[in-house]
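Hi team,

Filling in the usual template for the complex we talked about on Friday. All components are listed, including any nucleic acid strands or ligand strings, so the model treats them as one assembly.

SUBMITTER: L.P.
PURPOSE: interface mapping
COMPONENTS: two
RESIDUES: 488
SEQUENCES:
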Amino acid sequence: MSGMIEKLLIVGIVLGGALFIASGLIWLERRLLGLWQDRYGPNRVGPFGTFQVVADMIKVFTKEDWVPPFADKAVFVIAPAVIVATILMPFAVIPFAPALQVIDLNVGLLFFLAMSALGVYSVTLAGWSSASKYSLLGGLRAAAQMLSYEVFMGLSLVGVVLLSGSFSLGRIVEAQQGLWFCIPQFFGLVVFVIAGVAETHRLPFDLPEAESELVAGFHSEYSGMKFGMFFVGEYLGVTLISAMITTLFFGGWMGPFLPPAVWFLIKTFFFICFFILLRASLPRPRYDQLMALGWKVMLPLSLMNIVITGGILLARG
Amino acid sequence: MISIIRTIWKVFLHQFRKRVTIQYPEERASLAPRWRGRIILSRDPDGGERCVACYLCAAACPVDCISLQATEDENGRRYPEFFRINFSRCIFCGFCEEACPTYAIQLTPDFEMAEYNRRNLVYEKEDLLISGPGKYPEYNFYRIAGLAISGKDKGEAENESAPVDVKGLMP
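RESULT (copied from the run log):
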C-alpha cells in the first residue's frame, strides 16, 4: 500500500513538474527570444514578468471556444487532447533520478518512440478535421515531416542501444557511468537533436505551422483552450526531447556534488535553452529542403553511425 | 553547415549586447526638436496672437482636420474667431506649419495625447494657444509686413521704407 502511495506521489511530481515547466516555457521562451533579439520580452506582470503566464492562461481560458461549422466536430475536439496525452506519456519512463521514475519499462525507449510517433495523429487530424485549405496543407506537411524524421530518430538511437545493451532508460543512464554517450555517439546525438526539433515541429522546422505561408497551419481554425492545448503540447514536446537528450546522451541524472534530480534539471534546462536559441537564430527551410535534408543527409548519417558503432563493438568482441 | 553554426553563435553573442528597448513610461525617448507632434498656436514676442486667419493651414490640410472662422478686431486686424483641430483625424504631416505665413501654427515634440473619450481629441483655440513664440522667438509678422493704422498706410511711419511692390519685376 505504501508502495502504491509512493508511486502515485512520483506520478504527481512528474506530471506536475512537466506541466509546470511547460507553462514556464511560455515565459522563458519569450524572455530568451527577447534577450537574443536585443529587447526585453514580457517584464511587466509580476517579478520579471513571470505572471505573464497566468495572464496568458486567463486570456486563453476566457476566449470564445469556437468550432467552425464546416469542421468534423468530434475529431476537431479530440485532436488537441491527443498531442498532450501522447507527449505526457513518455515522461513516465524517463529516469529523473535513480528513485524518481514512474516506471522503468524494459522497452522504455521504444515506448518513447511509439508515443512520439502517435503525436503525428494529432496534428494530421487537426489539419484534416478543420476542413480548411491552410490547415490541410499544414497537416499534410506535418504527416510527411514527422513520419520521415521519426525514421532517423529511431535509427539514431540504435547506437545508444548497442552501447548500453538495453532499451530500458534506467539501464541506458547507468551504462553512461564512465563516458557520456555524447562522445562515442556524437553523430547519433546530432541526428537525434535535429530529428527532435522536426518531431516537435519547432522552428526552424515548423513547416506544419509556417505562419508566413499557411496562416497558422494545422491549428489555423482553433481558438481558446484547444489552441492552448497545441501550445502546451509543443512546450511539453520541447521539454520531453530535452529530457531525452539528457537521458540518452548526457548521462541523465549523473553528475558530481549536486543531487541527481538537480543535475537532470540543469541539463534539461540547458537543452531547452538551446531549442529556443535555434528558434531565435535560424530561418525556416523550404519544404523540399527539409525533406532532402532528412532523406539525403540524416538517413545516411544515422545508418553510417549504426554500421560504425556495430563494427567497433564487434571488433572489441 | 558552417554558416548555420556561425549564425547560432552570433545570435548567442547577442545576449551580451545592450538592449535597444526604451522602457517607455519610466524611460523616455529623446524627441528631435523638429518632431512633428501636438499642434499649437504661438504668439508673437509682444504677446499677441500670430494667427491672421488666412485659412492656408485649413486649405493645406490633407485630412481636413483644421477648421476656423476669421474675424477682425476694431483695428482691422484679422484673427480667428474660433480655431479647431480634430486630432483624431490629424496625421501630423506638418503641411499646416509649412503653409502658415506667420509661423503661428507649429508642431511640437509631444505625442502623449491619449484620451479615453474621442470628443476630447477635438482641441479648441484655448487648448491650442500657448503663451510663447514657439520655435521663432524673435519673429513678429507685423514688424516685417507692416500694418496700416488709421491715418497712416504701410511704410508711411517714421524709419519705415515703402513696401515692396510684389507685382513688379524691379528689385
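MY TAKE: Chain A has a mean pLDDT of 85. Chain A touches chain B through twelve residues (CB under 8 Å).

Thanks, L.
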